[in-house]
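Why should sequence recovery work at all? Because a backbone constrains its sequence more than one might expect. Tight turns favour small or flexible residues, buried strands favour hydrophobic ones, and helices have their own preferences. The token representation captures these environments compactly. In the example below, the structure is given first.
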């Protein structure tokens, strides 16, 4: 895990900014343009999360780390004040645990937090067992953009169960801003109201069709759900890259709510 004395005002924990690795930028200059745009919108730290385990894109940990080192050097040469950390957006697949043991999987900046991507149609039958295995290894799953998953959209209680068990949810800034449609935007805001969301990230791929919008999404959420919850999201992004514990606030219904504090090293695995 890379340690830093200071972090920028905004941390983006999910972004496809490295050149030529996946469906992000296809050349160095496009990556550099993204880096400049990120800094211009207040982002000073990005976890690069190339796709992995998706068939078309297989980016194992060593390869990603090498690319992150190269890109950070490029940013220094060009005097762009942005720090790139190494991560991976891991599509859930049946060999994931074996790959974890083999060292092919990269958590977010080498922390306890692992970014898991589900297929957009739903949740595979082995997902519960996978979460159990991941938790035994002392990792805490972060479910990438649950608001874009058809099964969660149709049956939100399926997602609630995972949140109650300690999984974290990362919504995407573009969903907040309505770029994936009004239905997903409504669902995203409802997830926030239910306290099932822990962090917002850009999932940016380029500057045209999949831009950052992180700053704009925070401004929008300030109005829709309030500054306190937005600050919680910002703080959690920082906690993720620092490998600090994240508190989950779970509202089971409107009348009754309670506070669940996860101490993953001692008790996290017992909660699955
Ligand atoms: Fe992504």
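From this structural description, the recovered sequence reads:
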């Amino acid at each position: 895990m890379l340690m830093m004395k200071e972090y920028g005002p905004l941390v983006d924990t999910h972004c496809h900014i490295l050149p030529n690795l996946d469906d992000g930028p296809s050349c160095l200059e496009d990556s550099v343009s993204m880096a400049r745009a990120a800094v211009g919108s207040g982002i000073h730290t990005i976890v690069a999360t190339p796709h992995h385990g998706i068939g078309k894109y297989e980016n194992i940990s060593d390869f990603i780390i090498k690319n992150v080192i190269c890109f950070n050097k490029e940013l220094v040469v060009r005097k762009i004040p942005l720090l790139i950390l190494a991560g991976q957006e891991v599509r859930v697949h049946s060999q994931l645990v074996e790959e974890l043991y083999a060292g092919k999987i990269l958590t977010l900046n080498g922390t306890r937090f692992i970014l898991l991507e589900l297929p957009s149609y739903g949740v595979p039958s082995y997902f519960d067992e996978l979460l159990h295995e991941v938790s035994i290894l002392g990792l805490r799953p972060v479910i990438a953009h649950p608001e874009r998953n058809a099964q969660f959209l149709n049956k939100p209680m399926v997602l609630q169960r995972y949140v109650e068990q300690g999984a974290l949810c990362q919504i995407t800034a573009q969903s907040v801003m309505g770029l994936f449609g009004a239905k997903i935007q409504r669902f995203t805001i409802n997830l926030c109201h239910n306290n099932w969301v822990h962090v917002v990230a850009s999932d940016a791929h380029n500057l045209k069709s999949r831009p950052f919008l992180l700053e704009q999404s925070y401004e929008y959420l300030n109005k829709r759900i309030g500054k306190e919850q937005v600050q919680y999201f910002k703080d959690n992004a920082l906690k993720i890259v620092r490998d600090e514990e994240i508190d989950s606030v779970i509202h089971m219904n409107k009348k009754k709510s309670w506070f669940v504090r996860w101490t993953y090293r001692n008790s996290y695995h017992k909660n699955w």
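A few observations help interpret the result. The pocket of fe (ii) ion is lined by residues 14, 16, 49, 89, 203 (CB under 6 Å).
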